Amino acid sequence: MEERRYRSASGAPIALRCRQHSASCRELAVRCPRLQLRSLSAVTSAVWLAAYGLFVLSENSVVLSAAIFITLIGLIIYLHFVKIDQESLLVIGSLGIQVTSSYASGKESTTFIEMGQVKDVVINEAIYMQKVIYYLCILLQDPGDPQGVSEVVPLFQSSKPRLDCLIEVYKSCQEILEQRKTAPHQA
Prior knowledge:
GO terms for molecular function: transferase activity. Helix content is 36%, strand content 40%. It folds into two domains: 2-34 and 84-182; 37-82. The longest helix has 24 residues, at 163-186. By secondary structure, the chain is of the alpha+beta class. A hairpin with a 2-residue loop joins strand 7 (118-128) and strand 8 (131-141). A six-stranded antiparallel β-sheet has the order 1-2-3-4-5-6.
């Protein structure tokens, strides 16, 4: 297993792990920065200080209880539905592509795309907040039109790796896709 350090579009450090299971099976995982205890403590303290200020003014203990309850519920929602620790791509030439997002709470979200549906994997560009960002996406083949694209599935939406990292993932995907395209001609 090989791990390289990169930066996200926002400048945060990320890591790309590449694991080759076989010639036609590769796993690529982008790890995002872990949740920082300092930022979590700062947000919690700010909410609780504001609640304490309201408690002093209103002399109602429900304000403190509500602040604690809202902070805990907000943290659980953030960890379970928002904060992604790792996004991975498992490319199996004969089967398809599995996209997995691992959340900070331990929950995983997985999508599988059959290789027959995959037209190509490309790096696309978009303008976002007065700058150009790049993203990797899977183009799904239109069943009615073999030359057309029915859907674009963006990858690594949470980690948003920069172009240098995306090029590494792109090359790995293209190696396996090329093997798939040339395999029937060799038989």
